[in-house]
Design brief:
The chain has 113 residues and is of the alpha+beta class. It has a domain at 19-97. It is built from 2 helices and 6 strands, in the order αβββαβββ. Strands 1, 2, 3, 4, 5 and 6 form a 6-stranded mixed beta sheet that branches. A hairpin with a 2-residue loop joins β2 and β3 (31-37). The longest helix has 17 residues, at 45-61.
Length: 113
């Protein structure tokens, strides 16, 4: 029984180690992206998107800027065969007085991987 419990813990640690976080990556002039991927198909992409947005916001705040989201993308179900929940956010860090922050938001649907 003890051996089964230890094996279960090992599998859990291996799966937890498969989660991916890109960190903030520059993709163009003053444009960045951050992504999160779950280790299994058992979690939703909503939490991943919130974590990616939070990291983007912290990145911009550390530079005394305001985060301006350009696009977001998420993986489409079914979450099998390595297609685990994933969220990617592309954003810019803008000055607080940038006119793009004053424009009315344009509704957009998420793109899918």
């Amino acid at each position: 029984m003890r051996l089964i419990r230890i094996a279960g813990y090992c599998v859990g640690f291996l799966l937890a180690g498969c989660a991916a976080n890109s960190g903030v990556t520059p993709i163009g002039p003053d444009t960045f992206m951050v992504s999160r991927q779950a280790a299994t198909g058992f979690s939703g992409s909503g939490t991943l998107k919130a974590e990616a947005l939070s990291e983007a916001n912290q990145y911009c705040e550390a530079r005394s800027k305001v985060m301006y989201m350009l696009t977001w993308t998420e993986a489409a179900p079914p979450y099998v065969m390595g297609n685990f929940p994933k969220a990617e956010v592309q954003f810019m860090c803008l000055d607080a007085n940038d006119p793009r922050l004053k424009a009315p938001p344009q509704p957009s649907l998420p793109r899918r991987f």
